[in-house]
Input
Amino acid sequence: MVDEAGLTLLLARDELHRLVNAYCRAVDRADYEALRDLYHPDATDAHGSFSTGGVEEFIAQLRAAEPYVRVSQHNITTTNFVIDGDWARGEIYCLVFHTFAGPDHDSDVVIGGRYLDEYTKHDGRWKFSQRTIVADWAYRNDPSHVDFGHPSTRGSLRGQPGQADPSIALFAPPQA
Output
């Protein structure tokens, strides 16, 4: 006998995992259409003084920062979800790595934190209705200490924010 309630909960957790992972890819690849589609139109996003408001304000800030972002990598670790029908909450642990261009040199910022999320499901899809970042710790290397000289990284493809990243071609539709 199939436990329908358990199966429904398992599927919801999987969909929410995919949502928070899709957020990371959309932000890191500067895919603003994909990012916009992850939020309900009236959703809010509170990223401290960087941006607080609706998704359009958040995207505008990301666009403004784009010329200064040399590295953007969001990583999800622990996920905790509470699901109640078509409404859910999540505490999503994250590690975020950035390298920012500066006037004289680049600097690195590494952040450990959590997203406190609320989600709602409409038309069969979970989306963010509210997202708030909590920064638990942060390190800054100023100047940047990125070094690709080690044999394990020398000659490898170099990732970068936005649509020029090597992964974009991997997920592109096949050419006819």
Notes: Residues 4-28 form the longest helix (25 residues). The longest strand covers residues 125-141.
